[in-house]
Amino acid sequence: MTASDEPLPSAAAPSRSAASEWTVRRDLSLFNNALAVGVLGGAVTSVALPSLALITLKASPLEVSVLYAAQRFPPAVTALFGGALVDRHRKLALLTWAKAVGGILLLCVPLAAYLGFLSLPLLCIVGFLLAAVNDVSSTAGISYLPSLAKGDNLAAANSKMGALFSFTDAAGSYLASGLIALLGTSRAILADVASYAISALCMTRIRTPEPPPSARPDDSTLLREIKDGLRYTARHPVLWPLVKSNTALSLAMTAWDVLYLIYVVRELHWSPVALAVVMGCASVGGVVGALAGRRFARPRGRWWGVGPLLLSALALQPLILLPVLFAGPGLLWQIVIGGCVTVRFAGATAHGSTQRSVRQGVCDPQYQGRQQSIGTWLTFGPRFLSALGAGVLVSAIGLVPSMAVAAVATAGGFVVLLHSPVRRLRAMPTASGG
After folding, report:
1. Rounded to 5 degrees, what are φ and ψ at 240?
2. Which residues are paired to 304 by β-bridges?
3. Comparing C-alpha atoms, which of 166, 186, 156 is closest to residue 39?
4. What CATH class is the domain 221-434?
5. Rounded to the nearest 10 degrees, how much is the dihedral formed by the CA atoms of 350, 93, 239, 356?
6. DSSP bridge partners of 300
7. Are 381 and 217 in contact (CB under 8 A)?
8. Is this structure's pTM higher than 0.85?
């Protein structure tokens, strides 16, 4: 065949490829915006629900703690089932329905307030069910992301998502204060109802094809699939150390956060304004850590890459807490603690987005939902026990010594990863590449 006889390159192929890339970028933007709007609205509800209990319903501290437990207990019960459910169905469809159901559930609160039926049991029920739905929604969203982004793009997507979420979470807290002052507490929740509707609408506009769920044996049951996911995660040389490390860090940091709040309010006599400003530093650190995490995770020579970044971020946690133990009253110490909070959350967010990319990359697609839910179950399920343990420890040895114990315990996550194959990771791994 002569040169003149050779077929010309098809002009349609590059056009389809370009169109496909444009669709993926558009869908990824829709996906991020939908979840960010949800975080913004959720921050409003996180302020409005306790305010309704304390101010409108005059709830006692014990009743408020029951509401707190109701909102945080579901992962201990629902996470494993949610992961198996996500792996059984199309993740985008499940995510869309979860957003719609969450909005309907939350609408019950302002509706009950308008009709005069608002009560603490209703808030607890809505809080529990909403947390369960959000748990499924979160698992579906994290498991669906690898359908939109691959390889380095997946790490970039996680970094951008972390930065966006940190920013919208901070904005949501300030938005909540404004809406409550302007509209009243119950009506302010309508902003979160709207966020669920907007998120669901954005999800319906995503067009990137999603791989179908893996085929299951005819005799497969939800319980058997949960056990299969547990076995897969527990035997994985990368997933299991990351889950154990995250759990150790989460338990220690939960205890620290409880003790820290008591310390700065009762011992250092911080005003609500000072507390709010320093809490805002966490979001600033989160944005910095999310944006910088992907850049710092890139391999550099023989000694740097993904594993060393994760270890460094974990080693930073106990070190950055130490200055707080020696803090005293006054503006100077507020600035010092604000700096510590900023650095702490920068490291934590860089670690969080990087380890999430690693887990998504190494996991077999058929186990994406279950490995994510197992991590949620182990990391977040026992947190209420850690909070209770912190209170018991204070009664036994005092506040500052208990804070020192919690600070040292945050090194547990570092110790776990140091003795695992994760420390040898340099480039971002994939399921096929190991």
Report:
1. -65, -45
2. 300
3. 166
4. mainly alpha
5. -10
6. 304
7. no
8. no
Quick check: helix, strand or coil at residue 189? coil
Q: Tell which residue, 165, 18, 191, has the closest CA to residue 110.
A: 191
d(CA 290, CA 166): 8
At 201 the pLDDT is 93
Which residue from 177, 187, 195 is spatially nearest to 36, judged by alpha carbons?
195
Side chain identity at residue 358, one-letter code: V
The second-level CATH assignment, the architecture, of 18-209 is Up-down Bundle (1.20)
Question: Same CATH topology for 18-209 and 221-434?
Answer: yes
pLDDT tens column, 177-199: 677 777 777 888 888 899 899 99
Task: Burial-class residue 137 by CB neighbours within 10 Å (0-12, 13-18, 19+).
Answer: buried
102-156 tens-digit pLDDT? 999 999 999 998 898 888 899 989 988 998 888 888 888 877 887 787 666 776 7
**Residue 305 in contact with residue 425, Cβ under 8 Å?**
yes
Domain residue limits, the chain: 18-209, 221-434
Low-confidence ranges of the chain (pLDDT < 50): 1-16, 18-19, 432-434
Give the span between the Cα atoms of 377 and 81, in whole angstroms. Answer: 10
